[in-house]
Each structure stands twice: as structure tokens, then as C-alpha cells.
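Re: [help] complex structure
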Amino acid sequence: MSEIYYRVQEPDVTFEIFEDEIIVINLANGRYHNIRGSGTWLWQALAAGVGRSKATDLLLAAEAPDPDPDAARKISEFIDQLTAEDLLVATPLEGENASELPEAPGVYTTPLIETFTDMEHLLAIDPIHEVDAQGWPSELGAL
Amino acid sequence: MRLRFAGTALVEPLTRALAGIAIEAVARPDLTICCWDSASTGTPMPAPYWPMSAYGPKGHIIGFNTATLHTLYNPGIRTLHLYDRRSSSGQYWVADAERIPQSQRSAPLREFLHWWSRGMPLQLMHAGAVGYADGGVLLAGKSGSGKSTTALACLASDLLFASDDYVCVATTAQPWVHSLYSTAKLVPGNLSRFPELSGKLSNPDRLTTEKAMVNVHAHFPAKVLSGFPIRAILLPRVTGARDTQLKPATAADAVLGLAPTTVAQLEGHSRETFAKIVALSGSVPSYWLDVGTDLTLIPAAIRDSLASHG
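Output below.
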């Protein structure tokens, strides 16, 4: 099976790595996300160019005090969420960025992403219903 | 900042909230904004230079936002913001001054201040601020989190008010908050908890459609502070408990409290805005402020946070 590589969806997506979580904002749609657990390592690995299968295998091989038989599925779903939210996009370019590669994944904990949508409405395009004599649009009743 | 008006219709709605930082005219202002409306002047806005397809999110005019130019149009209010970075000058137009919404009357012209501060260690942030001249706290969180309740509860204490909603933060080694707008807004249903605000509302006839608005600078001049060093970021959240408590928060919590709402509300250079908020959040401690129902206990909790980081 061929490997899949990803890159961060720049310039729309910006993020910051904290001690045990990552905050990611998609500036294009106002959705923002809090990544926790082993998701922080996965994000950094994928963003640094580690392929999907390799990153998954490395994480599955990590120490796990309470082994999770569903870990592979949860990792896959987590990565799918990153792409569904347009935070990471697949890229044909292969190559790990050594300077950004995270250390070994450490202890495995379920990768989690919490998505917040409460700012989306602020980035919505205003509805336009009418146009005044000079050509300036307005919402219904604003003229 | 110098404001120039064509006529008088916009003077009151655009300057009331800025009264606390008014200064005598200077020869060379850092920023000049020309403001006018069509309804009172009888002068229509010339036709737009862009097609209908150019209207994007947040009123962004596609193709008219460049390294040196910012352009916003709001079809609901019918306002146009134009800013030229090369001359540090802006144009604010509204079709009718009567239609300026509360969000612009309580924090007028903030878009221009945001654009002007690009590339400087300054950032407008959606946050309140209370404290003393030698140090205070930023109150961060989305609308409804309790920023205004917390800031107004401090009016009955020795803590001073800098803002309940929008501030300018100097993201320097010692972060500093600058007060911009000396108005405060409160959900009308919350007014009964603040009897000292009775008779002091600037919009008593609009409470069915707006939040109650108080000009803190006008009614409590001794309680307003122009700025102070930031000692901590507090993240209010309303609880049903009587007491107010401080609980440690992380820098990530502070970023989540400050960044999404600020980035979403301010158009332009969002990545820089996010980076400045991250820098601030990493430079001072953060706490959850679990706001209790007894308003008299809120200032003590804030003083506790300052005592720990004075």
C-alpha cells in the first residue's frame, strides 16, 4: 500500500503547540480545534511529513499501560477528522522535515480533537438582497 | 488618532465610547480617520469599484485588501471601512448614522486601530481589564462568559475599570493593557444586580433589542484607569455557586479564551493576531475565574490573583 503524506493547510490554518495540547484555528471558516492525547504527537508527526502508515505504526508501538484494541481505528478516525476539517491536506510530496519531527510518541493515549464552531457565523458572507441606486448592496430592509 | 467629521451626525455615536482617551489635538497624529454619512449630509457614496462577486466573509472586499489597503463593507448596516497603510488614514462611511449598531457604538472604529497596529507590538483584543495603576488583569472569554459582570462588579470595590469588552494590549516583555472604550454593556436581565447603574444607561429606550450600555467614564470617572501592566489573564465562567473562585488555567486555555473571538471579529492579518495572543498568553499566568452569584466576592478573587503575581 502506498504511503499518504500531509501538509498543514496554510495559509488558512495556524496552530500553536503547548505542553500537552495543540490549538488549531482555521482562519477560512472560523472553526477552531483543541487537540489532546496522542493526537498532539500525531499532528506534529504528520505536519512534519511522516507518512500516515508510518506515524500510525510508531504510535501503535508506543508504550500503553492500558492497551486499547481499538487504537488503530481511533488513530485512523483522528487523521480523517484532520483532513475532513481541512486542517491537513494530502500532498504528493514525500519528505520529512527533520527540524520539526517530534520525539518518540511516548505513552499512548487516545488521540482527541475537540472542534468549536461558535465563531463560524462571524465569518459567514452577509446575505445580499437589494442594491441601491449607486450599486451598493444591502440586506433586506436596509435600504 | 485624529477623527474628522463631515457634519455632526456621527460625532456622538462614534466618540462617546472614546471619551476616556480624548486628548488635545496634536500636529502629527499617528492615524487619521474621516467619517461621514449620507443621510445627514445628503451626499451619496459613489458607486463601488468592484463587482458583486467581490463581497467576501466578514465584509472583506476581494481584491481590495492588499499589503497597503484594507476594505470592508457591511451590507446589513451599510458601512464602508477603507484604510490606506501608506498614509495611515482611513475613511468611515455609513448610509445613516441612526443605523450604527451597538457593537460599533460601544467599540467604534476598532477596525482602523487593528489595521494601524499591524507590525507593531500592539494588538486589539476582545477582553475586559480591571486592576490598579501598578498592575491588573485581563478578562478573556467569548461573549456571555462573564467579562462584563466581572468588570462592573469591580466598580463597587477599589479595583479600577479599563474595559469590559475590547482593549489594546502592548505585547512587550511586560505586557501592558491600554483602555480604549470606556463603555460597558450588560444583558438587561442582569441589570437588577447592579443598582448603582440605575438611571445611568445611555440606551434605556432600546433594551428590547440591545444590551444595556453605560458610559463608565461619564458616570464613574474616578473608577476609570487608562492602562496598567498585565499581571494575569483571568477567564471568567459563570457558575451557580455563591462564591467566586480562582483555579489555575493553562496558556492554551488563555489562547482559547482570547484568540478565536478576537480573530473572528477583526478582519485582516489574522495570523499575526494569533501569534501576538499566543505570545501574551505565554508571558503571564492564567486562571479560570469561576464567577459566583455574590458580586461582592468577585473583586476579592481578582485581588488574590494580583497578590500572587504583584
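Residues 5-138 of chain A form one domain.
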